[in-house]
């Protein structure tokens, strides 16, 4: 009986830890970096407020104006992509996520965006898998002479 109780408690413990996967962080708009125009910052702030209120179409319009005012701002592109992603405009969002990543290489928040998450950390070294066996096959008559 004691063995049954211990094994049951161990099973429950394992099941509980398996269910406690780390949840992805919620996607929230980013503040613009220093050095952008006041107008871009204003549009971004208005977009962030609309986004937090689930007014994604309005947020998209404000973030688009922020991108127009500060086209080299990675955060502005990221925020526009968030609004587009929330509206279901996945391909357009992906393009802005990629632009944000290009403008801010190594930014962990931007690189953890839905469009880039499958590609992992940009600073991680690329691993090349080598096949242990050659994939080429000798043809008939191609052996050593």
Topology:
Blueprint: H1 2-19, H2 38-52, H3 56-69, H4 74-86, H5 90-103, H6 108-111
Helix pairs in contact: 2-3, 3-4, 4-5
Q: Mean pLDDT score, rounded? A: 79
Cα end-to-end separation = 74 Å
Q: State the shape.
A: elongated
The stretches of 5 or more residues where confidence is low (pLDDT under 50) are 122-131
**What is the count of β-strands?**
0
Q: In sequence order, what are the helices and strands, one letter per element?
A: HHHHHH
Individual helix count? 6
Q: What is the oligomeric state here?
A: single chain
Estimated structural class: mainly alpha
Percent of residues in beta strands: under 5%
Radius of gyration, in Å, reads 24 Å
**What can be said about the biggest beta sheet?**
none
Account of the protein in words:
Helix 2 packs antiparallel against helix 3 and helix 3 packs antiparallel against helix 4. The chain is mainly α and 145 residues long. The chain contains six helices and no strands.
Name its key features.
145 residues, mainly alpha, 6 helices, 54% helix
Structure in a nutshell:
With 145 residues, the protein is mainly α.
């Amino acid at each position: 009986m004691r063995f049954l109780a211990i094994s049951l408690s161990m099973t429950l413990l394992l099941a509980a830890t398996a269910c406690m996967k780390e949840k992805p962080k919620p996607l929230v708009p980013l503040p613009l970096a220093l050095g952008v125009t006041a107008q871009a910052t204003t549009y971004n702030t208005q977009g962030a407020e609309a986004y937090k209120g689930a007014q994604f179409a309005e947020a998209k319009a404000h973030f688009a104006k922020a991108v127009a005012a500060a086209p080299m701002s990675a955060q502005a592109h990221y925020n526009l992509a968030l609004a587009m992603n929330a509206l279901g405009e996945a391909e357009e969002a992906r393009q802005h996520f990629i632009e944000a990543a290009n403008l801010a290489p190594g930014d962990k928040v931007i690189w953890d965006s839905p469009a880039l998450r499958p590609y992992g950390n940009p600073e991680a070294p690329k691993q090349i898998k080598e096949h242990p066996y050659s994939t080429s096959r000798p043809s008939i008559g191609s052996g050593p002479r």
